[in-house]
Task: inverse folding
């Protein structure tokens, strides 16, 4: 369960104070697929970053299950991310000095898991990149890079998957493929999926849609959805 | 841990090329430290840290005068009480002229003559050129053994005869090395003859440049014997040295030299460290995203810092090992370049313990200089993946960083102290480095601010070039500091050399005499003068000289019990050549007291004392000095203290008497020739004088100056060699900086190309940018080099300083060209990148 309670985030821009998120509160039960939409600058990415503990709110609290992440230290947050959260970015953010395979290995190695190479190989295979595993990010296309990022996000079997415009830098075909992959993983592993997107069509496939405007939640609607696909990752 | 090791390995795999300069900076620094330290250690080993071998005995009883019968009796009485004395011999040394007997051979050489008697040597051995053992029979019946080089210089062969003083000697063999070694500064090559023959050759008769030594070998620690001898010979001018005391002095001296050289190495290593700091700083900047991703994936800041620290540690260690290889190469290079000047048996391999020390230094410097930049990793927040903003909290005072900085500085001080072997020297080194760095950095800042005004110029390329020097993350001042410092060392050394060489250049310096004749008897002076005049057309200046020793100062004997005084015993206790004259010489000036007037009373003997001797003797006008002149005591009143301008020297007398009291004393004459005559004429003149008056000693100033110049030139080459390493460090930092800012340059070029700039204007920008950088480095280096050479030559060396425009312009042009060529060469490929690929990847 993700719980946000009166979360506000302000930043200083020169002499001005900008409010990016303004008193945001909601709960997301385990296993739910939520799309967060809104205009550019509405605070979507910041919201995702705060839930992942990448930044701290100016006020308010955030809980992941029973852990209040707003009260945790940097290292505590790192540990939490390592164990519970997978993150997918719009611009992939793979480590350029590591191969695709090694990028997938990294989260498991951080956690100190055993038998990580086999699992990484399975993940790479699941995102259809078996022959590209030894390539560096710079040698992969955008779609391929995002598939590596998804494999990496699932490496530690997270409970929560946060995706920040994961298809924003991809063409329609590749975008759909990535979306299908995420949705499949969500279904198969009962992962909570929080997707930030501009794409109304993608958002429409979520079980719930939260709309942000000027840092405030202007709409929060649940709907029935539930396409299931073939399992990609065992 | 597995994560740390795996990531370290992978990071090294992908980043080693970018960190190549890091690696090279460390390698160069470690190479310098190890090479310099090994060089001096090997030199110490062969020159002999072994004072016993250098002395060729355990105890030496020496004097610049003949031993008086009383002295001999005293010495023998003490020696007889010590059964540890196993053996003894006597040696006598002086400077003399050697010339072939063959009249057709006009060669003439200044030699260091040594008369020996068996058993010689008591310690050590000869290395004969033909490999045979030395046999004293070679010297019997007027035989001589010569340093091999003399055969060529005198154009003689074994079996030929040479003349030294009044005697003829047959060349019976040559040596490559003598007991005690043949290193050190010498005016002439060594000639060994029998001591008996030495006395018979008449060389010692009138010369004050003879040193007699009685050498003893003992079977046990001679300290007590030395104490007894000193007590027994109290008040005499006889000096007693034991190898143990010498050993301590020598060891301390070599250790000091080694430590100073190591500091020079450390300077290069610290410069390498600046390079490391620079690379690490840019590296962390480039790795910001990777660090953020790793933090996002759950890695803690400490884990990530450990990864990069391990990476630095590994590269530092590999760099250090490479540096050790470089040191070995450097030693081979030194062998190739300086083999003739260095002792023949010198080894050119590096010392294992020195290599280990170098490697430790390299790794420590890598860590110290990269610690602060790596600490920056803590401030990188994962949120930059969502919104790239400069998230370093600049305004907040970062105590950890300051504490770390202070820690690094203390550690660096520790390293300097370790290398210098002294807290004071280490602190001075670091302080000096900081001041030099700060001054150069300030100069670089001022110049770059001045340059900013040039942005108003019309030329697009020029404006862009100036802009490039100010781009965010620019390395301009660091490059100016590093390259400027290297070029500064090289140019300063060259500037000082040009002043020194000019000072000693006889063909340009007419104030120095070309020949000095001494020990001319009163009966010979007229004939010698006429020979000189016949050959040179110049009437030589004739100066009467009287031999005297100091007996008392203010009625008191000199206190040789005082250690300080004993150290100067050779200087005070020797026989002086003193003169008398009415007038002050042109090159002399009075510091205190008054020069005598021509009409004043002459009945009280008055003496003028040279300033340095006056301070050694602690006398001032009004004091008295009693001289012993052939057994007769003359007490003279110190009338004045005199300064002699040695640059203008014809003769330099420490003591000058007022005419009167000395005129009746036994005296000889000295004559000086000022005209500069060709070498062959000088040689003929010397031969002619020696053929008629073999007792006369002749100093060919040109020969002496040549030896000095050779020495100076070797020093200059050695310092320039080290200086060029400093310059190389600077160049490495330059290349490193170019590599680090390359992505930025590629991006800028892509944008400029998209906006319509052609390759030619981009090339102009590039050349102008590095040209300006080079010009500024050159200005800093030359400016400070000129300033320092002026200060050192004028105030420390006390010689005339002259601005050398050729050197200044040369230094400026070469530095500019060097920086331009290196900078342009390192970034030239940027011009050929296609803009689309660059822009898409941003």
Result:
């Amino acid at each position: 369960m993700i719980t946000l309670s009166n979360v506000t985030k302000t930043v200083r821009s020169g002499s001005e104070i900008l409010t990016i998120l303004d008193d945001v509160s909601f709960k997301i039960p385990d296993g739910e697929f939520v799309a967060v939409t809104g205009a550019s600058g509405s605070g979507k990415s910041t919201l995702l970053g705060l839930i992942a503990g990448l930044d701290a709110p100016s006020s308010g609290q955030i809980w992941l299950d029973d852990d209040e992440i707003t009260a945790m230290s940097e290292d505590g947050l790192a540990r939490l991310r390592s164990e519970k959260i997978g993150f997918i970015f719009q611009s992939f953010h793979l480590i350029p000095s590591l191969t695709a395979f090694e990028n997938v290995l990294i989260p498991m190695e951080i956690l100190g898991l055993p038998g990580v190479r086999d699992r990484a190989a399975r993940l790479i295979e699941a995102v259809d990149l078996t022959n590209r595993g030894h390539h560096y990010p710079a040698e992969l296309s955008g779609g391929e890079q995002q598939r590596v990022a998804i494999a990496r996000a699932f490496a530690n079997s997270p409970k929560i998957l946060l995706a920040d415009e994961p298809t924003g830098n991809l063409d329609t075909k590749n975008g759909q493929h990535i979306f299908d992959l995420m949705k499949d993983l969500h279904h198969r592993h009962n992962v909570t999926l929080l997707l930030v997107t501009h794409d109304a069509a993608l958002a429409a496939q979520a079980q719930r849609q939260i709309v942000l405007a000027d840092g405030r939640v202007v709409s929060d609607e649940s709907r029935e959805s539930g396409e299931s696909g073939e399992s990609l990752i065992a | 841990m597995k994560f740390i090791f795996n990531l370290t390995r992978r990071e090294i795999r992908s980043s080693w090329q970018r960190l190549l300069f890091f690696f090279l900076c460390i390698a160069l620094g470690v190479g310098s430290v190890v090479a310099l330290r090994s060089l001096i250690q090997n030199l110490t080993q062969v020159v002999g840290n072994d004072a016993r071998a250098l002395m060729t005995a355990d105890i030496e009883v020496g004097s610049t005068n003949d031993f008086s019968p009383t002295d001999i009796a005293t010495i023998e009485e003490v020696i007889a009480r010590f059964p540890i004395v196993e053996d003894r011999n006597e040696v006598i040394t002086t400077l003399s002229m050697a010339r072939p007997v063959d009249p057709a051979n006009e060669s003439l050489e200044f030699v260091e003559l040594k008369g020996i008697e068996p058993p010689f040597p008591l310690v050590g051995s000869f290395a004969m050129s033909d490999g045979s053992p030395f046999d004293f029979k070679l010297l019997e019946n007027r035989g001589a053994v010569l340093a091999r080089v003399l055969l060529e210089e005198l154009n003689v062969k074994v079996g030929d005869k040479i003349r030294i003083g009044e005697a003829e000697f047959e060349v019976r063999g040559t040596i490559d090395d003598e007991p005690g070694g043949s290193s050190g500064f010498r005016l002439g090559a060594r000639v060994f003859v029998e001591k008996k023959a030495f006395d018979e050759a008449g060389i010692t008769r009138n010369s004050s440049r003879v040193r007699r030594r009685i050498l003893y070998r003992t079977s046990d620690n001679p300290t007590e014997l030395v104490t007894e001898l000193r007590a027994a010979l109290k008040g005499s001018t006889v000096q007693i040295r034991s190898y143990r005391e010498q050993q301590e002095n020598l060891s301390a001296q070599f250790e000091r030299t080694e430590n100073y050289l190591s500091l020079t190495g450390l300077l290069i290593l610290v410069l390498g460290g600046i390079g490391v700091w620079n690379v690490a700083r840019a590296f962390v900047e480039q790795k910001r995203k990777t660090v953020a991703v790793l933090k996002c994936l759950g890695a803690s800041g400490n884990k990530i810092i450990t990864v990069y620290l391990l990476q630095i540690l590994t590269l530092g260690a590999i760099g250090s090992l490479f540096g050790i290889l470089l040191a070995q190469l450097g030693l081979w290079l030194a062998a190739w370049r300086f083999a003739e000047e260095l002792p023949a048996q010198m080894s050119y391999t590096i010392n294992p313990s020195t290599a280990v020390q170098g490697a430790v230094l390299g790794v420590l410097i890598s860590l110290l200089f990269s610690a602060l930049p790596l600490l920056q990793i803590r401030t990188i927040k994962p949120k930059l993946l969502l919104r790239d903003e400069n998230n370093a909290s600049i305004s907040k005072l970062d105590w950890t960083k300051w504490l770390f900085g202070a820690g690094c500085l203390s550690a660096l001080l520790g390293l300097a102290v370790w290398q210098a072997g002294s807290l004071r020297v280490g602190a001075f080194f670091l302080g000096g480095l900081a001041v030099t760095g700060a001054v150069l950095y300030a100069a670089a800042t001022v110049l770059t601010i001045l340059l900013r005004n040039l942005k108003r110029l019309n030329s697009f390329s020029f404006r862009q070039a100036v802009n490039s020097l100010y781009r965010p993350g620019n390395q301009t001042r660091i490059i100016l500091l590093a390259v400027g410092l290297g070029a500064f060392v090289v140019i300063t050394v060259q500037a000082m050399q040009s002043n020194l060489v000019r000072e000693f250049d006889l063909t340009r310096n007419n104030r120095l005499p070309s020949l000095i004749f001494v020990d001319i008897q009163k009966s010979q002076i007229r004939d010698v003068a006429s020979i000189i005049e016949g050959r040179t057309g110049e009437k030589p200046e004739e100066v009467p000289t009287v031999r005297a020793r100091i007996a008392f100062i203010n009625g008191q004997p000199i206190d040789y019990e005082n250690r300080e005084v004993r150290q100067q015993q050779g200087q005070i206790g020797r026989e002086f050549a003193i003169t008398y004259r009415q007038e002050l010489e042109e090159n002399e000036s009075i510091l205190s007291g008054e020069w005598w007037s021509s009409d004043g009373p002459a009945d009280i003997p008055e003496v003028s004392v040279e300033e340095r001797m006056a301070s050694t003797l602690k006398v001032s006008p009004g004091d008295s000095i009693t001289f012993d002149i052939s057994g007769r005591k003359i007490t003279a009143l110190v009338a004045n203290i005199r300064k002699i301008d040695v640059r203008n020297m014809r003769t330099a007398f420490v003591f000058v008497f007022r005419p009167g009291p000395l005129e009746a004393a036994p005296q000889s004459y000295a004559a000086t020739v000022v005209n500069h005559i060709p070498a062959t004429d000088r040689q003929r003149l010397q031969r002619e004088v020696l053929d008629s008056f073999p007792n006369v000693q002749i100093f060919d100033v040109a020969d002496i100056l040549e030896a000095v110049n050779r020495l100076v030139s070797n020093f200059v080459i050695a310092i320039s060699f080290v200086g060029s390493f400093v310059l190389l460090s600077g160049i490495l930092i330059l290349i490193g900086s170019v590599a680090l800012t390359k992505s930025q340059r590629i991006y800028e070029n892509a944008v400029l190309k998209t906006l319509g700039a052609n390759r030619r204007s981009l090339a102009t920008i590039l050349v102008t940018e590095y040209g300006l950088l080079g010009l500024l480095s050159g200005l800093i280096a030359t400016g400070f080099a000129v300033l320092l050479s002026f200060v050192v030559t004028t105030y420390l060396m006390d010689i005339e300083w002259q601005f050398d425009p050729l050197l200044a312009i040369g230094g400026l042009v070469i530095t500019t060209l060097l920086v331009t060529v290196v900078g342009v060469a390192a970034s030239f490929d940027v011009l050929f990148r296609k803009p689309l690929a660059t822009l898409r990847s941003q």
Observations:
- Residues 132 and 139 of chain A are 9 Å apart (CA to CA).
